[in-house]
Amino acid sequence: MIIIKKNIIKLIIHDEMISSGKSEQEILNEIILERYIDPYWYQIVKTAYEKRMSIGKFLALIWMNTDVIGKRDMIDLVKYASKKTANCNSDLPNPTNPEWHHFCDLLESLSLYLSTALATRQSNALKNSIVKLSDIIADYNNNNINIGQLEIYQIIIENWYYLNDKVKVYNLLGTMAEMQTGWQDHPSDRIELLTLLR
Questions:
Q1: Which pLDDT tens digit goes with each residue over 123-143?
Q2: Whether residues 55 and 153 fall in one domain
Q3: Euclidean distance between the first and the last CA atom of the chain, given in angstroms as a whole number
């Protein structure tokens, strides 16, 4: 990788300003937009950065934007969230969380989607996912919260083909991201997330 000296960068930007008639801010804006921000996501990125949102809140904001459903493939974001969840320092909060019952209802919807898929396509993988999810739901309904989100993410990832256009799946992803605590918020995590939105 070539490291360009600071004074060379300044001279190039100066030449671009003279050549194009653009301000330094306009040139830097174009570079940032080209490298990091897809215009489709601009409002979400702007909100996340202005409010200094955690990675979890940032992901929740993305997934709660239902305009994206069916227009963008979000599997890489789901895998990213799963990977980052593995590094979180806690599991889901306990049932006193106001979102708890909503979360459990969304798990039931996920189960229904998988059962519907199984009715039209026999698959051992689908059957296994339904059994795993039934066990998770039973545990949660009994206030056993020892199962973290990784298992739920894994079920969603394995069955993305059947789930990628379901609003309640995105609601579930957003709710999980919102409820999870202990997200790592290193700048490299945010840059990785921005890269996935390109």
A1: 899 999 999 999 988 888 777
A2: yes
A3: 22
